[in-house]
Specification:
By secondary structure, the chain is an alpha+beta fold. The protein has three domains: about 10-155, no CATH class; about 295-440, PurM-like, N-terminal domain (60s Ribosomal Protein L30, Chain: A, 2-Layer Sandwich), CATH 3.30.1330.10; about 440-600, PurM-like C-terminal domain (Phosphoribosyl-aminoimidazole Synthetase, Chain A, domain 2), CATH 3.90.650.10. The protein has 24 helices and 21 strands. The strands form four sheets. Strands 1, 2, 3, 4, 5, 6 and 7 form a seven-stranded antiparallel sheet that branches. The protein has a seven-stranded mixed sheet with strand order 15-17-14-18-16-19-20, sandwiched between helices. The longest helix has 19 residues, at about 385-405. The chain starts with 10 loop residues before the first strand and ends with a helix.
């Protein structure tokens, strides 16, 4: 057996009889698909040479007697590869590791396996990928590193040290002193300094609210409101009131006739007091058809889950009522700045909506849009990733997630157009089904509890909803590293299996997936009034403060409301699937969203205020469509 002593050599740890050690894994040539594919990819963008890849594992608090078993049973096997004590000589060697605070699925899986093998969770694992380069031009090395290292989530690793990443220490939650007395210029400066997605009129509404409350807000409250009122969550664009609508161009008569029909339907439905918005224009027909009993299959859910219809299903010769759920999700912004994670969580997020509706998701499709993936890397738009890198890595991310959860994808299409070079298109669509009698939707009542099930919470995905609602610039790719979530399909598969248990779903009163906004939205929306204890939220690592816990969009988490008497039973069912289920909140009757952290109330917002969605938005509209424009497009 080869020596397991890595470079650097073993160091003593503070734990008695425990070590810190490094292990490298090298695939045998016939199994080293990654190196061959990467060499081909680098050649396609103009870098010609030989590349070898190695998997690096840094193990902390591991006993000497455990090292050999970890190596042979978890991180390598003699058929496909073997461990080596140090990297062979290459002209250039460098390694890439995740930034502290980014979820490392390889390290997480290794630690889970160690826990299963040894019955304790003392061992901490950090991973990296090492690259050995030969016969490349020396001047190309910096460009190769830039191509391989996505600064959004990764960095070059210092191979000369063996050091555990230190989590930053959490600090007290800041109160924005003087906020209620800011003048207009002060509010504008605050808006810019905090990179809020809301506008100045929204901020003025917030200031008025806290003046009435006779106190200054916490930073948690500001960030939570910014998330609630972001375009991503409240659909600002689609809910903006359209005024002074004028039609012109070749199709003005047709558009005006259609608009008159819309106004007539509004009157017939008694909606003349409602604002004219793109949302109302887009959704009024289903309301109209339902009023005429023309949509008998439509299922109106009390939950914020996927679009749903009722169908008759033939189950072993018996007719049963089933719910069919549809969901599509776009992850244009995340996929553009972190292709693998963005595309993976696109399909993962799409799955999560019907899954929170207790449905089993069984089919998917993917539609994406990119610029020319064959263009020279030197033609990449400044501060953006090359189109080839986005296209290839997003395809890997989507397929990785779909394969791990076991989802059949029957349509995959990528559209190539120069317009997508400016903004990526990444769209995932899924369909799921569940027996109608399996789903209960019961309004939560005072005393019910909210359980968080699934993955732990980290810094990945903090501010994603508000970040995706901002206008981006050349610095965006280097300032939004925390906003892209990291998917873990295995955890979502466990939730999927848990929800197949009829005894489990019968305990659920209401369910909401953790999408945009994290705890503050997923749990904040699940009941009109709720009190959340952020200290009960399971974390991936220490050091997160209350604001980070409240806003993190870490993936594969669900919030379920159950009766207090059923909470322990539900938790035991989750444990059978190796899922964490933790009571994190209680339903109240106070008409407010409240959060506590370290014994202090860091957020207290009246539901009536949150539901205003901020300042009213209006825009004058000139609708102009010409024949030549249609032909040109």
């Amino acid at each position: 057996m080869p020596s397991l002593r890595p470079y650097p050599r073993i160091h003593l740890c503070v734990k008695i009889n425990s070590l810190n050690t490094r292990i490298y894994i090298k695939k045998h040539d016939n199994f080293d698909i990654k190196s061959a594919a990467l060499q081909k990819e680098l050649k396609s963008v103009g870098f010609d040479g030989f590349i070898s890849t190695y998997s690096l594992y840094d193990l902390f608090n591991v006993k000497e007697s455990e090292i050999a078993l970890i190596t042979s049973s978890i991180i390598s096997d003699s058929v496909s590869g073997n461990s080596i004590s140090e990297i062979p000589k290459h002209e250039n060697i460098f390694a890439i590791e995740y930034l502290p605070g980014q979820f490392d699925i390889r390290a997480d899986a290794t630690m889970q396996c160690c826990q299963l093998l040894f019955g304790h969770n003392d061992i901490i694992v950090q991973t990296a990928t090492v690259y050995g380069l030969d016969h490349f031009n020396e001047s190309d090395i910096p460009f190769i590193k830039k191509y391989l290292i996505n600064a959004i989530d990764s960095r070059e690793k210092d191979l000369s040290v063996l050091k555990l990443h230190q989590s930053k220490k959490s600090s007290d939650i800041q109160i924005i002193e003087g906020f209620i007395n800011y003048n207009n210029e002060g509010l504008k400066d605050f808006l810019k300094e905090k990179r809020l997605s809301i506008d100045i009129n929204d901020l003025i509404c917030i200031q008025h609210y806290f003046r009435e409350e006779k106190r200054n807000p916490t930073i948690t409250e500001i960030k939570a409101i910014d998330t609630y009122w972001s375009d991503h969550c409240r659909h600002t664009t689609f809910l903006t009131e359209l005024t002074d609508i004028v039609f012109s161009g070749d199709f003005s008569k047709e558009m005006e006739s259609t608009f008159e029909r819309y106004l007539k339907i509004r009157t017939e439905l008694g909606r003349i007091d409602k604002k004219i918005t793109l949302m109302d224009l887009g959704t009024i027909l289903p309301k109209y058809f339902s009023s005429k009993n023309l949509l008998p299959e439509y299922y109106h859910s009390k939950e914020n889950n996927a679009a749903t219809i009722t169908i008759d299903a033939d189950v072993k010769g018996e007719n049963e009522k089933w719910l069919l759920l549809f969901k599509n999700e776009t992850h244009n912004h995340p996929t553009e700045i972190e292709p693998f994670g963005g595309a993976a969580t696109c399909i993962g997020g799409a799955i999560r909506d019907p899954l929170s509706g207790r449905a089993f998701v069984y089919q998917a499709m993917r539609i994406s849009g990119a610029g020319n993936p064959l263009e020279n890397i030197n033609n990449t738009i400044p501060s953006k990733l090359p189109q080839q890198k986005i296209s290839k890595e997003s395809a890997l991310g989507y397929s990785s997630y779909g394969n791990q959860i076991g989802l059949s994808t029957t349509l995959v299409t990528e559209i190539y157009d120069e317009g997508y070079k400016a903004k990526r298109l990444e769209c995932g669509f899924v369909i799921g089904a569940v027996k109608k009698t399996s789903v209960k939707e019961i309004d939560p009542v005072d005393g019910d509890v909210v359980l968080l099930i699934g993955g732990d919470t980290g810094r990945d995905g903090i501010g994603g909803a508000s970040g995706s609602s901002l206008q981006h610039n050349e610095s965006s790719i280097s300032t939004m590293q925390s906003e892209v979530q990291k998917g873990n399909a295995i955890t979502e598969r466990k939730i999927q299996k848990l929800f197949r248990n009829q005894e489990v779903v019968q305990l659920i009163k209401k369910c909401n997936d953790f999408g945009a906004g994290g705890v503050c939205v997923a749990i904040g929306e699940i009941a009109e009034s709720v009190e959340i204890n952020l200290n009960n939220v399971p974390l991936k690592y220490e050091g997160l403060d209350g604001t980070e816990i409240a806003l993190s969009e870490s993936q594969e988490r669900m919030a379920v409301v159950v009766s207090k008497k059923d909470a322990e039973t539900f938790i035991k069912y989750a444990e059978i699937e190796n899922l964490k289920a933790t009571q994190v909140a209680t339903v109240t009757n106070e008409g407010a969203l409240k959060m506590k952290w370290n014994g202090k109330e860091i957020l207290h917002l009246k539901r009536s205020f949150l539901d205003t969605n901020g300042a009213a938005k209006k825009i004058n509209v000139i609708a102009n469509v010409d024949r030549w424009k249609i032909h040109a497009n």
